[in-house]
Amino acid sequence: MENDRPEPLILTIFGASGDLARRKLIPAIFDLYKRNFLPDRFVVLGVSRSKLSDDDFRQKVFLNSEFISLAEEDANLVEEFTQRLFYQPIDTNSIDDYSLVKDRLEQLEKEFNTGGNTIFYLSTPPLLYEKIPKFLAQHGLNKKEDCYRRLVIEKPFGYDLESAKQLNASLKEYFDEESLYRIDHYLGKETVQNLLVTRFANGVFEPLWNRNYIHHVEITNAENIGVGSRGGYYDQSGALRDMLQNHLMQVVAHVAMEPPIAPDANSIRKEKTKLFESLRPIANGDILKNAIRGQYTRSQVNGQIVQGYREEEGVPHDSKTETYAAVKFFIDNWRWSGVPFYARTGKRLPTKVTEVTITFKKPPHTLFRRQSEMFENDFNQMVIRIQPDEGLMLNFGMKIPGEGFRVKNVGMDFHYSDLSENDVPEAYERLLLDCMRGDATLYAHGDSVEYSWEFVEPILDAWKNDPTIPVYGYPAGTWGPDVADNLIEEDELSWRNPCRRLTDDTSYCEL
Ligand code: BG6
Questions:
Q1: How far is the centre of ligand 1, averaged over its atoms, from the C-alpha of 243 (Å)?
Q2: What is the model's pLDDT at position 463?
């Protein structure tokens, strides 16, 4: 990250006593502070329902292990940092309470001479996403002369197309699009951004990046954890809403968008919006075949019994919510016409990994057929590993030394960890800093969010309304339901196995 420090500001976090703030936001802000990325005149105001004093809030921050691990090194720095943390309890549902926020902001503004710049970060239940901006506006906090007021909104952005549209419309009553920052933490991942650099900074790949040379594209997102204590939230959401509509679709956009005219927010977001607009919704009659849903069931993983989804805390015993989703779809534009995209995401799979595999078409004529059965069946592939072991691998056939033309498939790989200046910042750090600098490049635009909902809506509707579409069970620790394999095998292909040795090690995956 470049170190041009943002202007003075107050970062106001709604939902500050919650999990996300403690686990991700405050540690990210501290790390930015430690690395000298924040301005001297900078404070955090936590706002939430819990009745805490400033000191209680600071203690709460300390009691979080992620923060402690970052902070251990330097007690003075921690002390300095915590003196910049403040807290205001309010009932977020009560409009009158927002005068407390207003008073507190004015007081902090004066004390720290922050000049009025304020970011409001909504790390609250989505039910409050319309209310908080409205109440802020009613107290005149959404705009101020000669400074900025920005609003950051966590996912989920809407529950379906209609609610996303309504939320967009409601937010735009109080904040203009330039002041709205819809966060998708996948966009903060270095490797997701690197997709653009890989494509557009290299003369070698982009000429091949189209329907003439690419056979198909796979996106796999796997988690080995279950829903844990988030069953209540997750059961209302499911894999399609929780991961595919937002994170995976953002990855698709980076893989498939046209080159932007410049690497700035407007140009990149314009191209991404066009791409989202070109997604072909899966036709109703094809959903059974091309959109598979699954749910993990009780199983033994590495000698341990792992409970099924329906046994998780907060999940109804007859839940039909999917913990796994796989879809096959097309992008209706010049570049991608006819190229199938396969995307899958799931919890309680064998490992944690996210990767994109670009499979190139085979050579037009198979010269070495007789010498190598194996090569004949293999395509050239580019694997972009988003996490863990961030990197890129290119797979191609090479001659085995010796007589004849025996061909072996080899991989050429690059690992981020091999870079000497190995500084892969946490997604939240990058995103927070960008918002402070007023750079929305890595935030989702309102239109693209709506197009993405438009794409998943027919699947959600069919899954909700058509009882003949099954929720397939899969044992925890496996790669999802078998029918999801059929989805790709029907096209005489198979999912790339992201692990070399699946059964030996479920928590780490090598390229
Ligand atoms: C969140 C989802 O947005 O992303 C979680 O709500 C999921 O269910 C998480 O576990 C995955 O993020 P990452 O960065 O660990 O891949």
A1: 7
A2: 96
Q: How many CA atoms lie within 13 A of 388 on its CB side?
A: 10
Q: Is the pLDDT of residue 245 over 50?
A: yes
Confidence bin at 421 (pLDDT 50/70/90): low
- Local confidence band at 73 (pLDDT 50, 70, 90 cut-offs): low
Domains, the chain, with CATH or none: 9-154 (3.40.50.720), 187-359+417-425+445-509 (3.30.360.10)
Query: Taking residues 136-161, what's their average pLDDT?
Result: 94
> What's CA 237's distance to the chain center, in Å?
15
CA distance 44 to 83: 10
| Residues in contact with ligand 1 (CB, 6 Å cut-off) | 155, 185, 223, 242, 354
CA of 186 to the centre of ligand 1 (A): 9
Helices 446-465 + 265-277 axis angle, to 10? 30
Is the pLDDT higher at 243 or at 77?
243
181-226 pLDDT per residue, tens: 999 999 989 889 889 999 999 999 999 999 999 999 999 999 999 9
| Contacts of residue 81, Cβ cutoff 8 Å, sequence gap at least 6 | 30, 33, 34
Evaluate if residue 508 carries a pLDDT over 50.
no
- At residue 46, φ and ψ (nearest 5 deg) are -85, 135
Ligand 1 nearest-atom number relative to CA 189: 14
Q: Which atom of ligand 1 is nearest to the CA of 230?
A: 8
| Nearest by Cα to 482 from 492, 495, 469 | 495
Catalytic residue list: 247
Q: Is the pLDDT of residue 303 over 70?
A: yes
Look at strands 118-122 and 149-153 and give their pairing.
parallel
Measured between alpha carbons, how far is 118 from 198 in angstroms, rounded to an integer?
Answer: 35
| Residue to mutate (ligand 1; options 19, 185, 344, 390; most atoms within 8 A of CB) | 185
Q: Per the confidence metrics, is the pTM higher than 0.70?
A: yes
- Per-residue confidence (pLDDT) for residue 3, from 0 to 100: 64
Q: What angle do CA 92, 96, 102 make, to 5 degrees?
A: 85
Identify which of 189, 247, 429 to mutate to test ligand 1's pocket (most ligand atoms within 8 A of the CB).
247
Residue 501 pLDDT exceeds 50:
no
- DSSP secondary structure letters along 230-281: GHHHHHHHHHIIIIIIIIIHHHHHHHHPPPPSSSSHHHHHHHHHHHHHTEEP
CA of 349 relative to ligand 1 center, distance in Å: 14
> Looking at ligand 1, which atom is closest to the CA of residue 247?
3
